[in-house]
Amino acid sequence: MMGAVLELSDIGYRWPGRAAFSLTVPDLTVQRGESVLLLGESGSGKSTLLSLICGTILPDRGTVRIAGTEVSKLSARARDRFRAEQIGVIFQQFNLLPFGSVTDNILLPLRFAPQRRKRAGDGAAEAVKLCTALGLPKDIIQAKATTLSVGQQQRVAVARALIGQPPLIIADEPTSALDADSQTAFLDLLFAQTAKHQTALLMVSHDPRLGDRFDRVIRMEDIAVIERAAA
Ligand code: ADP
Ligand code: MG
Fold it and tell me: What is the pLDDT of residues 53-64, one digit of tens each?
């Protein structure tokens, strides 16, 4: 499959009530199956940009297209559903439901995404398959997320992002809390799984050493104009 999975054009955004920070992104495209590392200092607007891509916030101007659909044209409800269908998200703190089991957590995005649920087939069986592929012991699947080690939690977060093969994975500094060995293991499993399904990956980091593993490395200062007015 060829073509762009993500296209941003002429984006402008200012957090409401915060005149001091504005973000402009003239053009950013990610192709199907492409892995892109986005580097930038803390406070440079990386997470804001990811929220714009995910449609959790809407740009003041410009367009975000995911798999050909202009996200800002959708109603809030349609946008939530569209996000669940198209994007697997991995947050810095993994954001697992603490009282949910591993299965509950992995199946969560399918609840709001009928097409993705269809692609996943038997969701529970797929969750087990993903856990196995990610090196999680089988008997962990009914355990509560709170009882897991950090390394196990990150694997669950990856499984939750990958289930039902969304065309785009967005990861916001998922390795920042990990030591070098766990970082490598985390990226190994993320890349193995995204390569298998031609999934595009956009990962944010402030660590340039991760760059070698990606198809492309971009820097916030090269794709965005940030204005920080004096308070
Ligand atoms: P990064 O992820 O690169 O560290 P952020 O996108 O988190 O950068 O932050 C960029 C700017 O946007 C900062 O000035 C921050 O204070 C502001 N900002 C981030 N999130 C919010 C929010 N939810 N509400 C208001 N301002 C925010
Ligand atoms: Mg951030």
Answer: 999 999 999 999
